[in-house]
Fold this protein.
Amino acid sequence: MTGVKFGSVLKMGMIIGGDAIEDAPKVTGRIKNFQRLGCIPHVNTGRGIDASYSLKAVWTVAVLLELHRLGIKREEAVKLLNAAPEWYGINVLERKAITFSVPDRRSQITIDVEWLATIVASIWTEAAQDTAFHQEKRNRDIIDVRPLKRGKKKEAGHG
C-alpha cells in the first residue's frame, strides 16, 4: 500500500484531539492548514487528484496535531518540527517519547510515541484492509472479455 486517503487521516486527527463527529470540519481545517504551511511530506494532491498520505506524512500529521492539542499554535508546531528533522526515522517506534524544545516558553514538550503509534498503526492497518477489500472486489467484477472466435463464413448455395 502506498498511502492512506484523507478520510483516514481525518479519523486519526479526531481520535488524537478527542473530537466529536460534529467537529470534523474543524479538524479538516487544521490538517489542511498544516498542508498549506508546507510541512506534510509526500502528499499527492492537485486538481481532481485524491490526497494520498505516506506513512511519514501520517506520522507528521499525528505529531503536529498532538503538539496543537498540547497548546502549541500551528505555525509554532511547524517550526518545532522543522527545527528537529531527526524526530522521524527508523527508530521512531523504539522511542517512548519525542521531546521538543519550545524557545518561546523556555520549556520542553514531550509527546507519547507509544500512544500515537497505536493510533497510526490502527489507521494504517484499517486503510490497508479497506484497500485489499476493494481490490478483491474489483478483481471479482472484471468481466471476461476474450475475443470472439471467428469462423469462415459459409457462402450461400454451398453446403
In short: Residues 6-131 form one domain. The chain has a mean pLDDT of 78. The first strand starts at residue 97 and ends at 102. DSSP finds five helices and two strands in the chain.
